[in-house]
Amino acid sequence: MHDTVALIEARIRRSYSQRVARATHTDHVQVTVETWDVPDEPVPFAQAVTREFAPLEAGTPWGRPWGTTWFRISGTVPSSWAGDTRRELLVDLGWVGGNPGFQSEGLCYTPDGTVIKALEPRNSWVPVTAAPGEDFTVLVEAASNPDVGGTWTHEPTPMGDLATAPRRPLYTFASAALAVLDEDVFALERDMWVLIGVMDELPASSPRRAGILRALERAVDVLDPDDVPATAKQARIELAPALASPAAATSHRLVGVGHAHIDSAWLWPVRETKRKVARTFSNVLDLMDRYDDFVFAASSAQQYAWLKEDQPEVFERLRKRVADGRFVPVGGMWVESDTNLPGGEAMARQFVAGKRFFLEELGVETDEVWLPDSFGYSGALPQIVAASASHYFLTQKISWNETNVMPHHTFQWEGIDGTRVFTHFPPVDTYNAELTAVELARAERQHAERGVSDLSLVPFGYGDGGGGPTREMVETARRKADLEGSPKVQLARPDEFFGQAAQELPEPAVWAGELYLEFHRGTYTSQARTKLGNRRCEHLLREAELWAATATVRTGATYPVDVLREAWETVLLQQFHDILPGSSIAWVYQVAEENYARVEAALTAVVDEAQRALAGTGGRTLVFNASPFAVAGVPALGAGTATPAAARVAADGDGVVLESDAVTARLDAQGHVVSLVDRRTGRDAIAPGEKGNELLVFRDTPNQWDAWDVDKAYERMPLDVVATTGVEVDGDTVVVRRTVSASTVVQRVRLSPDGGALEIETEVDWHEKQKLLKLAFVLDVHAETSASEIQFGHVRRATHTNTSWDMARFEISGHRWVRVDEPGFGVTLANDRVYGRDVTRRPREGGGLVSVVRESLLRAPLFPDPHADQGTHVFRHALRVGELLEGVAEGYRLNLPSRTVDGAAVDALEPLVAVEGEGIVVEAVKLAEDGSGDVVVRLYEARGTRARGRVVPGFDAGTATRTDLLERAWPEQPADALELDLRAFELVTLRLPRA
After folding, report:
1. Which amino acids are annotated catalytic?
2. How far apart are CA 468 and CA 321, in angstroms?
3. Which of 241, 489, 551, 622 could lock onto 480 through a cystine, CB 3.0 to 4.6 A?
């Protein structure tokens, strides 16, 4: 017999695409379209409806980049449209191709200002409720957002900056019409789409494939190409048996959760994200009115807060659906934050702010941490998740790994302190699923736990730019609930999935340590000014809370609740995983830097006022130290008189020597550190014949994502463009001047106030493109691993490349310090704004190995911000030989410089809280979130070993209580909460009532 399968399939596909898919709507009636262009930033509905609207014809260009155009579309429902006819307004704003969420979008209103739903590239209909013979009007707030990504060639573009974007219209208005949705044809379209997809995934020899093919062929046979609506029911009858055939009992089961990943900023500004939220959530609420089984999950309390402020009526509708259990807040965080770069307290506050909002505004406590798209996941996160009273974690991005494949999809993730959190990594490999047959087959094929469990989760809905699920997706899920040849799809809530998965997999595999993303390593360095703003504001928040709390307890000063909350919410927002990592458009960073400046000013005022109140008025000088370690004689978390160590700086042949009682450092004629001798041990931290403080430049042209990636190949492209132009002594400082191609560098090298560390301040006026600047130190340490500070502890990573996992970590992240050590000797390099680096080793002159630490200072990517990192930057580093805790202290000192208040009444101030016990570090001192006035202390064990100690209140305190991050009593209370017996890296929050 002749093989005619290909011909039959071609006939089926042609019938589907050219006839059925085009016939879902009938009886098209023309409407009147008028527009008004908003001259500047968006305006509220009440202002827009009062403006003068002008007629608009199909084919007319509209919408400058980032502009807003209001459309008023009106018409009359024909009197002949009687009965239960579903009347819909179909609008094409001029969308092209794919990329839903990256083009123009619109929010639709009734004439009285009630939100209906959104218009999106693949969701372009609006229900019309007017009766036959009645007039109707729909107003559309349309955003003419540019597709900055374009074809993803990642060429420099002016579109990401409002000042440089061209003013010409981006879109051409295509059409608007009132039409009738033919429900039989719409159902047939879904029937055929589903069956064609399943058929394509089945083997050619499969009887099921042959059966579907014949059913589709029969359906096409009965369709009248001149009148599809008249024959749609009969065609569906032909397909019914194929759709009714149940899935095998062993088929993979997928819990489908409606979702819309909405980046809080990325290739659009925060301003536009607020409108994306309103559009997406209104779409979702409309779907819930139509489908009783539809469930939707959304994270990011910040986005709910925006909706409450900008669209209170939509928020109230959302609130009712949350109460119904169908609109499900997840995540428990203020935003879907990056987790590599935020500090420990900031990471904790993501949960404090997020969970408090959901509790206070929606009456729910989230249990699932939902972070599908962050660029790697800190090993500190499991403990923070548990401390927030959450129990489950979901991620997706690890599927982007370039080198290694994660061996699990459902597992226990173990953090650096030993805490484990039940984690799911959906094998569908996308958080923007459309429930296609390809996606579901991939989920079944890749599921690592198959044979033990056959359950996974699939988040479906258009995302990144928002939009969310469509009615087509919900209809698809219904057809795939139990369909032969396809995994089974069950619409359900995330908590239902996690509960079922945990029950079915009682002994899951364990993954210990960070979930390092083998991709997007450039995000540790891109947009250096934003990273500085984050680091600076995190520490200002620490200072402001500490000194304001101390002033409130000691002097009765008013605690600045509103200022602190607003500052935290701003900083937390900008830790979103496309803002802080440096992967957004220029507009985002212009706003971010303005926000950081505003926060810094507000917090500096809080600190100044509190310290002035604490210092009193007199003739003394008082030095405040917000660090948890004493600095130059000033007590931790208190104030006193500083006693800097004596230091000597002198020329020595062609170089310069800096010396104190603790160290002797020597710089050569090029300004490189060629020796740093620890006088306690007599050992030199710099390897023989090697040097530190060396600037290295590499060509930085990643293969794929410019601002996101640093590729291993950069090491093959060093550039010999660094030249020293001068080395001179200026008092206690050595000034080194350099040029780097078209850029200039001035370094100031001095000893730290206690004389124990070598400080290096590097001021760079950067004018390079696609170049990577590193600051390198070759250290005489035989280190198997390097230690990098992360939230509430540190993580150790191999300095060798024994395995492919080790090799993939060629660029690593960390916070205030990185350390290499061997038994009995170690060196810490602390910083005040750097997050990315590489740490390797190489043969030592005379035998053995040396450690090479290279801090990544600056990049210069061209996409999506062609001017990223340009201009002046100042970096501060400190190189210290000593124990690990000395390095930890150095990191705090650099980031929390002491503050001096003259004209004080006292020369000492007892800390509000002190800690007895080595290795126990106070991360935050504040007043309780509930306004009770209780003092809250957050601390952790920093060395990675057990520690015992005691918290000593510096005020009359009542009985202390151990709490979760939200300051609620911990289920298991010690006999005395002030007595501490901590495991390695354990995080503890204590609440101390004021007696």
Report:
1. 373
2. 16
3. 489
